[in-house]
UniProtKB/TrEMBL annotation:
The protein, known as: AKD1B protein
Keyword Transmembrane attributed: no
Keyword Plastid: no
Pfam families: Ank_2
Residue ranges of ANK repeats: 37-69, 70-102, 171-203, 204-236, 237-269, 270-302, 303-335
Record keywords: ANK repeat, Repeat
Native source organism of the sequence: Regulus satrapa (Golden-crowned kinglet)
Length: 335
């Protein structure tokens, strides 16, 4: 349990209240006491960017190596908030520069994720700690984390430091997959200048283009298509970019894909045609978009049903009307 004085001391560190801390220190408070999350006053001081409190704690030899319940030490927090002044003080005082949290993240990972360019430069150019450029517990190097977050300046900085990588994380995603998935079109643009294989597959058989479409990220999808992505490629569970755009209700992407001559005929391993999926999703605008794009209105799914059968089963009068007006064949019998 945390003693009242210790709790007050930690709160004072959090609130940048040096007077209270000095009073409590004179009363012999344990300056390294931890709260229920295993955080110390030092954690709070660094997270708040309170330089004078950090100086006070360093002067009184507070411990630098204490990890909270997630394995976070003060050096991780300094990287996360991007405070170079505090970081330099911690390093000078002997903080473990290679400390990792429970997810295998070190200072470079935190700095890359929070766009702290000065911290990256300090560790790589001043301290020459290039061996910190390792994958974290999920197989992501700093470059992948920066791409995932969409930090354009950080990406440019890491490329300048020759830390560009097209390596994959443990899910088989590259930096390009992660940027496309999260809709970071500026990062996608920068990565494409350096990129070799745009149709690289992750563990689920998804390309960056597929992930861009799935996330409804039109600009990313456009850039990736221009760069030579395969518009018709299927994932491991036989889903295509068009199918996922329909299922996620991304009308403008469905229209975009049709304009780019996406294949409207389902592959043999796909149980339903795009039009069946649009009907099942009850999405009238997408149904109209597919019909305008020339989709076969009488295509059969794996149960030999037409889109009209499905619309009738759903009891969607509006969809039935649209399909009838568009001239679907009433004579097709389902099995």
């Amino acid at each position: 349990t945390v003693l009242p004085d210790e709790r007050e001391f930690q709160y004072a560190a959090k609130m940048n209240n040096l007077d209270t801390m000095e009073k409590l220190f004179k009363k012999n408070v344990n300056i390294n006491a931890v709260d229920t999350m295993k955080r110390t006053a030092f954690h709070f001081a660094v997270a708040g960017g309170h330089v004078s409190v950090v100086d006070f704690l360093l002067h009184h030899k507070a411990r630098l190596d204490m990890a909270d319940q997630h394995g976070l030490t003060v050096i991780h927090l300094a990287a996360w908030i991007g405070n170079l002044d505090i970081m330099q003080k911690l390093v000078k005082a002997g903080a473990d520069q290679k400390a990792k949290n429970e997810e295998g993240m070190n200072v470079l990972h935190f700095a890359a994720q929070s766009n702290s360019i000065k911290i990256i430069d300090y560790f790589l150019q001043d301290l020459h700690l290039n061996d910190l450029n390792k994958p974290d517990g999920k197989g992501k190097k700093p470059f992948l984390l920066a791409s995932e977050k969409g930090h354009v300046d950080m990406i440019k900085n890491l490329i300048a430091l020759q830390l560009f990588t097209d390596e994959k994380d443990e899910d088989g995603n590259t930096a390009l997959h992660l940027a496309a998935k999260n809709g970071h079109s500026e990062v996608v643009e920068i990565l494409l200048e350096q990129w070799g294989e745009v149709n690289d597959l992750n563990q689920n058989g998804e390309t960056p283009f597929y992930l861009a479409v799935e996330g409804g990220n039109e600009k990313c999808a456009e850039l990736l298509l221009e760069a030579g992505s395969d518009i018709n490629i299927s994932t491991q569970n036989s889903s295509s970019a068009l199918q996922i755009a329909i299922q996620n209700g991304h009308l403008s992407l469905v229209t975009f894909l049709i304009d780019k001559n996406v294949d409207l005929v389902p592959k043999p391993e796909q149980k339903n045609s795009p039009l069946h999926l649009a009907v099942t999703s009850n999405n009238l605008p997408i149904v109209k978009s597919l019909l305008d794009g020339g989709h076969d209105i009488n295509s059969l799914n794996h149960r030999q049903e037409t889109p009209l059968h499905l619309a009738a089963d759903l009891g969607n009068v509006e969809l039935v009307e649209v399909l009838l007006k568009s001239g679907c064949n009433l004579k097709t019998m389902d099995k």
